[in-house]
């Protein structure tokens, strides 16, 4: 029986990349014999609404063309629905796609994963009544994210690099209380990040070694270091070679609470809300093509 796929397109993601790759993906799916219904979003709210309509319609699967923000919105509806979920990366960071092994710069190859039909169940974090697909960040990294989101230039990962340099000029370590399961840690730190997968910010392996289907949250605490040392860490984060640094503490657990006065948490690259934030794990909550 022919599979029916709802292809939800965010045409503005990646500065228009979503619109450009949509015909390629649709053609690839149709050429493989799938019935493809295309839905273009005009606002953020459309992603969730269309996804809910697709589930009710009896379609066999949903495929989203967009970045981490689009994926985040879709996950709010698709989590725990059991409906297979295809990801066509077309954003700035694309960290969720990276975490599940979807090709980042080849939309046809990403579509081929949907055609193949192989699925896996992956974990989601839960914070402030939202499902989180990548990382919850609070500290230097969330301030960088805020600055990067406000920038119109440059495009891609270079935006995060410039935002990092700008924020570094005035940043000072913050006071945290971090609780991982029953362990309470009071510490000064540059940042605290909690993820189901390893990367955020377009490939920075802040939770290096995290497995997206192990039922655990990975926690990284970067303790106080000089601005120069923090700057030197970022290239290492891209390669994962920061692991073992004496000022980086890594933990795992099923529940995490982060608190630091005056800091806003970011999740999937978007503002989540003021700390404190409680984070739990939803094992196997999302079924993806991978």
From TrEMBL:
PANTHER family: LIPID KINASE YEGS (PTHR12358:SF106), SPHINGOSINE KINASE (PTHR12358). InterPro entries: ATP-NAD_kinase_N, Diacylglycerol/lipid_kinase, Diacylglycerol_kinase_cat_dom, Lipid_Phosphate_FormReg, NAD/diacylglycerol_kinase_sf, YegS/DAGK_C. One of its GO terms (biological process) is phospholipid biosynthetic process. The keyword S-adenosyl-L-methionine does not apply. One of its GO terms (cellular component) is plasma membrane. Belongs to the diacylglycerol/lipid kinase family. The lineage of its organism: Bacteria, Bacillati, Actinomycetota, Actinomycetes, Propionibacteriales. The keyword Magnesium applies. This is YegS/Rv2252/BmrU family lipid kinase. SMART domains: DAGKc. One of its GO terms (molecular function) is ATP binding.
